[in-house]
Design brief:
Oligomer: single chain
Strand order of the largest sheet: 4-3-2-1-5
Largest sheet: 5 strands, antiparallel
CATH topology: SH3 type barrels
CATH architecture: Roll
Number of domains: 1
Order of helices and strands: EHEEEHE
Number of strands: 5
Structural class: alpha+beta
Radius of gyration: 11 Å
Helix content: 10-25%
Amino acid sequence: MTLREVKVGQSAKVVKLHGTGPVKRRIMDMGITKGQVIHVIRVAPLGDPMEITVRNYELSVRKADAEMIEVELVEEA
């Protein structure tokens, strides 16, 4: 499943980053790396962008970038 498929209020753990070169590097520079837990806060009315929390800060991610992030859902503790 990709980050784009995660619903508002759910959390997911990054399994793999797809993409190559500068695109993958930009995603990693935002702090989205393998093993990080991402929480989806909200999604814009038209679905783009989505606001997430990663490494204790809020970030907006475009749908195209969210599709390159493979995740697995995690249960809230």
